[in-house]
Amino acid sequence: MTAMDENMTAAREAMVREVEQRMVDMVPWVGRSVLSPRVIAALRDVPRHLFVPPEHLSEAYLNRPAAIGYQQTISQPFIVALMTDLLDLDPDDKVLEVGTGSGYQTAILSRLVAQVFTIELCAPLAARSGRLLQQLGFSNIVARTGDGYLGWPEDAPFDAIIVTAAPPEIPEPLIAQLAPGGRLIVPVGGISQQLILVEKKRDQSIVLREIIPVCFVPLTRQDTA
Ligand code: SAH
After folding, report:
1. 76 lines ligand 1 (CB under 6 A)
2. Ligand 1 centroid vs 164 CA: distance in angstroms?
3. How far is Cα 158 from Cα 151, in angstroms, rounded to an integer?
4. pLDDT at residue 224 above 70?
5. What's the CATH number where 40 sits?
6. Burial, 129: exposed, middle or buried (Cβ in 10 Å; 0-12, 13-18, 19+)?
7. Minimal CB count within 10 Å: which of 13, 48, 160, 207?
8. In this predicted model, what pLDDT tens digit does every residue of 156-189 receive, in sequence order?
9. 114: exposed, middle or buried (C-beta count within 10 Å: 0-12, 13-18, 19+)?
10. Does residue 225 surpass a pLDDT of 50?
11. Residues 6 or more apart whose Cβ sits within 8 Å of residue 203
12. How many folded domains does the chain comprise?
């Protein structure tokens, strides 16, 4: 390992500890105080510094979002960890992600499940993250450019769906594309947003749970983008 790699590994380890501590602080809201060991392992494995733009390299392992261009951001590590954890992913799951952005959350998911489908509206961001994920050898990802509000009907249903931009309401197509027993995590709202966990029970009934207030970029629609 080069000195740079060693620094990055140490910084990443400190980030993981900070994320774990933040999870403990969140018990009253989230109801769980520890992240699954598989989520922790994925945070340890994925080199977040390669997903932030070079000008933000020094912040790559801080528990903060960072600008990735096109008015978009790479999400805060704690939020990535929390959303991933709340999906209760199994290794054989098929997952849909709306809002590929930098590809960091995609990479985390790729470590945890069999197959990841990811949609990004902004074509240059889709091209950049697609290239990076391929270079890094994440091979169980299918990526497309388009409006993720509509989901990915051809490959539905999904065991889990994660939305990383905020729509004004829970997108109906995404609920429809959730498998029975599946989970959808989505930030909903405008200036004020709530992270919402949607569970589709085996009998197809829907249960919603508000988790915490969050601050995501808005989910834009194809015709307005
Ligand atoms: N998970 C990403 C988050 C990026 S920010 C990361 O951590 O890097 C949210 C992303 O959602 C942006 O890249 C934005 O372009 C994208 N987005 C916004 N509206 C969208 C839509 N309707 N369909 C797909 N992607 C969308």
Report:
1. no
2. 6
3. 10
4. no
5. 3.40.50.150
6. buried
7. 207
8. 999 999 999 999 999 999 999 999 999 999 999 9
9. middle
10. no
11. 180
12. 1
